[in-house]
Every structure is written in structure tokens, then in C-alpha cells.
């Protein structure tokens, strides 16, 4: 699947999640309905960062939120401490993140053996 279609699909998913019609998204982003429609169908091959930003503002999300890869992990059920742990790991460089993650996993294994 090419990136143009992926961006359009992601915009469509976010639009639906925000309970917006294409018409409302077009109005809120000051773009044409035709542009939004073609973008969502992957028929629009070029989008400027300004237009992408306008769409994201209308959807009340950041560009990075729109473009991030979808994950099979649902964050909705995580506790505040779990979310903070994920955030802290994301601030580390890759080797440190891996090292700390390995230690945490070992602690979890020990916890499971002792308390289950």
C-alpha cells in the first residue's frame, strides 16, 4: 500500500473517530470537499505540510499522531504509572531503552513466579 493512500486512510479514520463528515472537515480546515474526498481515497498524490496541518488542527490531533504507525497495543486499559513508564522509555536512546526494558522484563518474570 502506498503512503498517499495510507495518509488518506488515516485521515478518514480520524475524521470518523471525530464524528465529522467530509464536508465539516473541509469547512474546519478551509479546504474543499473534493480535496478531502480525493485525499481519503488516495487519488490526491500531493499534500503540502500546511494543508496537512490544517486537517490535523480540524481533527484536533498533531501531525505526528496522524502519521504514527498503528499499534496492536491498546493504551486505554493502561494505568497512569504504566503510561508514564512508556513515556519515560520513549525519551531514552535506543540502547538505554533496550537495557532498561530487559531489566523490567526480568523483574516481571520474577514477580510472576513469586506471586502467581
Question: Brief overview, please?
Answer:
GO terms for molecular function: DNA binding; DNA-binding transcription factor activity. The chain has 116 residues and is mostly helical. It is 69% helix and 0% strand.
How would you describe this structure to a colleague?
Helices cover 69% and strands 0% of the residues. The protein folds into two domains: 3-67, lambda repressor-like DNA-binding domains (434 Repressor (Amino-terminal Domain)), CATH 1.10.260; 80-115. With 116 residues, it is mainly α. It has helices at 3-17, 22-29, 33-40, 49-59, 63-67, 80-90, 94-115. Helix 1 (3-17) packs across helix 3 (33-40), helix 2 (22-29) crosses helix 3 (33-40) and helix 2 packs across helix 4 (49-59).
